[in-house]
């Protein structure tokens, strides 16, 4: 296992490297505008632009420019997303600082939503699997269709309108600057975002659990378990679910990993200052260091989540062994 | 006269499907005495597995139509509540299955699975359950049982897995152990070991055993009673001598003839399979279900379903041929080969 | 500003003065509303405040400021609003309460500057006893601090937004030595002299009557020594205030620690600056104790919050059209909506170097065909502004072109017949039937903003032009991307629909020079989108000659230069008005359609709404909350 981990970590750095190259090429080859011009303000002269280009190192050959960014890829404190290179063209803030200040918001959103979608999706999936083609199962399918089809944007606006504006049961969008995450959660600011974000996942997970569980329940070892005289509930939960949920854990890890890179639409609708909002803003502003920083950071999360899930799988399924 | 441990009366199991009603078990009656080993032989689709799964209450289909009576120690299993039959399963009647690799849960240690069996029916701590599991593994002949109990099924070899299944099935000292194709997934050498094991354990635990198989060779040594099933019915039943040296049904003759022989005279001979295919269980042939494939059929066979008629206390067959004809044909065609 | 009854003071002894005062009061009293209030909602006797100080004013902005609140970099009206009201006092400033928004008053200067006879030397005396905000609360503001601000402005590394306003050049009167300093040829700016702590001398290379305005821009606000030295890129977060408010937590500012009150992209929190002394500042009332601004969200969501009373104002956008309608028509809500001219014009523009727009007849035809009233309706209707019939806003021309309408049509809805008559004169209409039949009129690229209402307006333009035989290929972009395309002459954008232009200060120079003047066509950041006045070299340089065969375009450079040279406003203003007229009729490179209004909706508890003409936004230094926000 130790060797496996080392190999995976090296692979992770390789992936970050490739991601950064691709991002770099995309933005160098297809810029919305020369970033020096952006940074130069309203009426730049050619001299001013030249000065800024030199300052940002934009007058260097491409591979030199890239090497400056590449150094910031190594996930080691002090080196990762170093401040000199990863400095926002538009906000004039170190990208690292922005990202770190926004991670708690996105993490709270992602993890809370994960709890919500598991709490909704798992029971629905399990009951649908136990009673296939029953009324409940069909209702579960309708729920899944709605959950997967309803655009997050629409759902979010609708939720805000009904629960905040009309009923005044829940607070509106945004987080006041003086509230930390705990206070914000206690104030109920995350309830609607969690629900809205969780809905489509819950729908998807309920169908996935249903399918897995139905399949698992037709396995031979379930028949053995019943033959041992075990109660049906125990057969379902200790024998059936134990096997059916293993792939769910894999999906969960990946989904959370991706969400930690920023739940863009949810954060935008509810004006939550997380990574997704930052990514969108940076893209719209063609703020290249910020784009690079956010992309790499998100890639890092996904790779780590991937690794974590793979390792967890070895613990869940004893047949799997890593060397 | 001893009370039969298990008495099955006219068991019928039918499954309605889109294409029609599948008559998986079409009127099966037999009994098992305490301490007896019953062998049930037949091809796939003969109804041999379904009968016993139904007896255990493991036929899952919601739409299955089950008729008849299954008296276990006097009580009708088919009419028991779910809770009651769960009591019976595992502690009084146990079942082991064909493929021990898929029949054991891959994510739990073997010892834990055996222990679970015990703890389902007895109030025993985890520790004690594990100790008993280790003891059972020892009794089925698995070396270093303490180590093995902590391992997962995929770390066992095929034969050992089946031993572990047997250990699990016998852990509560059931009265009846049903083994559904216990050796089919195993090597021939291991087959013999498992069958010997079953025989030994039967003595030690004083249990009755049912061995379900498609292989006549498997039941040859160990079974007191043998039933041959075809198309959901028992076509012949008797003891070892009856079935192997005095059988009275064309299907059984066909099975015996198709056994490959290794002795000098037989080397180089072609195998003799039974001509034709098993019938559809939805659209059974009229009269005797075997008649389309039977070389000895005559007009009565098409019209009338033959009943299982005993020829003496322990031997019965379902065929319209006269007893004299049966004995004659057997001597001429089947025994002649030996 | 309006006054209520009972304001008038009478004195028996001075009957004439009484009459005079009465006459004055009669003129001032009993003003009128036009649909929405244009000023305050209530005042007190002799101007004494009736407003309760206190409370936290809650504002929202859709986007953050554009340069991190760096006063030298920011060229954005919203940032300017914060500087003027709250953070950065300058030598000269504007009083939002003054109905003449071009009227400069001394702010940090003790009095009006003394200008030498030749107009080349301006002397500012600085008020005594004013100190900076924390953490420099013990440092008094001196002349040197202003020079420091100019030096930062002239530092190319800082990439200041409008440093060119201070350059001493051939065509512009600026500070002596500023260009040298900018080019690195000098260590200091020769033309700025701190005679003593309280006296600043400014030497110009040429007389510049508008220097006062340029000394009212936020980049000239004083900076204490040590505050900005190590913050070439990010001074905004370390900003030391000289106004009534400061970023919350400014006392914690060190070289490494920024003020927590400004969270870029997230929020701005302003609290009272303990160093500010109202006695030195007659302009700013600073009723509220704190100003909380959240950044982000959507216009609709923010409007909902204003409706619900959770927000006091949406500061940097225009309310949704539905809200504008609702508030203007509901008598209960009418005192919460304010409409003011924002001194800007919105327009379509055509590239003179790209066919078919190289033909005057086509441009005139288009000017006839466009339904200006429809474009305005899509933006929100009459409330959002007057129909524009020429490019320069009326206030900068002394309203000289009052009723001028070179392309009249009923209700400004367009006149198709007149348009066709013009088109018939075009070389692209070969059979003279008023419909363009040349391939140049097919699938003309129209680059516009993807946000509402620009997208809807594009559809209307398409409808307007189709009967003329001009079909459009509409491509909408995110705003900054659209502007990047406009800014680049090499993009050859033929036809643009998302543009607007607002005055930098009260002189038509700020329209003509950036928008219409040929020599100001820039390689990057170009604001003369139609390539007006481009010479053949420029046309070739940017590829127009090679691609379209265009070798020359119309120009108003000559007329413009005459106006630039005029010093006397009495000459300048009519001169610029004439430029506007020639531009409209004889060049017609633009289709202006709206003189923009700022429309702001505030919450019920907001009081004393005053519009600041300088930045076209609500004055946060004047606003108050009912019951002090209790």
Strand content of chain C: 15-25%
The average pLDDT of chain C is: 86
Roughly how many Å is the radius of gyration of chain C?
Answer: 26 Å
- Which ranges of chain A are low-confidence, i.e. pLDDT below 50, for 5 or more consecutive residues? none
Gross morphology of chain C is globular
Rg of chain A, rounded, reads 24 Å
Fraction of helical residues of chain A: over 70%
Q: Number of domains in the coordinates of chain C?
A: 2
Q: The biggest beta sheet of chain A, please?
A: none
CATH topology of the largest domain in chain C: D-Maltodextrin-Binding Protein, domain 2
- Unreliable stretches of chain C: 1-47
Which structural class fits the helix and strand makeup of chain A?
mainly alpha
Biggest chain pair interface = A-C, 49 and 49 residues
Alpha carbon gap, first and last residue of chain C: 27 Å
Q: Kindly, what is the distance between the CA atoms of the first and last residues of chain A, rounded to a whole number of angstroms?
A: 5 Å
Helix percentage of chain C: 25-40%
CATH class of the largest domain in chain C: Alpha Beta
CATH-wise, what's the superfamily of the largest domain in chain C? Periplasmic binding protein-like II
Number of DSSP strands of chain C?
22
* Helical run tally of chain C: 17
The second-level CATH architecture of the largest domain in chain C is 3-Layer(aba) Sandwich
